[in-house]
């Protein structure tokens, strides 16, 4: 028998023991000697009987040590298993880092989601500051110019909000729609179909197809029938 000394990593000991046990179990089936019971019985030997069975069992329990070729193959399989295990650990670590990075980017995206919109609103705020300063110093003849300046600021603000997706809900003269309108009150009218908006008290707004605020409206209804006395 060839003696081979191999220094194995600690994390491979369990794996090697399992493989060696499996191979030795297979070799034990192939290398067991013929049953000596018939010869013992023919010679009248005392090996027959329970004592002979114990000797036979002890002989079968002897496990041959793995050969150098078997050890080499086991070491190669253990090294490959270790490589796959380390690769699995690296993949799991990379996936965990990926989840953390995505969560951090999502949080930052929500935190600064309105950055572009606010940058567009800053000039509007500047113009409002100048309009207020002009109003404080206004004289009797400069009221018209102040009105014009405020109108221009209103248009500028409306364009910024429109570019961001804001749409105004115009409910005047339309059929009442509970999805976009909020009935503040009802008004009896004879010349208007029932359920139609007769007056818009407050503008409504939506972000593309999503409602932000319904339009506050007055809805027409049929006049009450007066009973004759």
Instruction: Indicate how many domains the architecture comprises.
Output: 3
Distance N terminus to C terminus?
129 Å
**Parts with pLDDT < 50 across at least 5 consecutive residues:** 1-6, 37-48
Most strands sheet: 3 strands, antiparallel
Q: Work out the helicity level.
A: 40-55%
Would you tell me the structural class of the helices and strands? Answer: alpha+beta
Mean pLDDT: 77
- Strand content is 5-15%
Q: What is the tally of beta strands?
A: 6
From N to C, what is the helix and strand string? HHHHHHEEEEEE
Total of helices? 6
The side-by-side strand order for the widest beta sheet comes to: 1-4-5
Radius of gyration: 46 Å
The outline comes out as elongated
How would you explain this protein's 3D organization?
- This protein has about 230 residues and is α+β, with helices and mostly antiparallel strands.
- It has three domains: about 10-100, no CATH class; about 115-165; about 165-225, Head domain of nucleotide exchange factor GrpE (Nucleotide Exchange Factor Grpe, Chain A, domain 2), CATH 2.30.22.
- It has helices at about 15-30, 35-45, 50-60, 70-110, 115-135, 145-165; strands at about 165-170, 180-190, 195-200, 205, 210-215, 215-220.
- The strands form two sheets. Strands 1-4-5 form a three-stranded antiparallel β-sheet. Strands 2-6-3 form a three-stranded mixed β-sheet, with no helix packed on it.
- The longest helix is centred in the middle third of the chain and has 44 residues, at about 70-110.
- The chain starts with 12 loop residues before the first helix and ends in an 8-residue tail after the last strand.
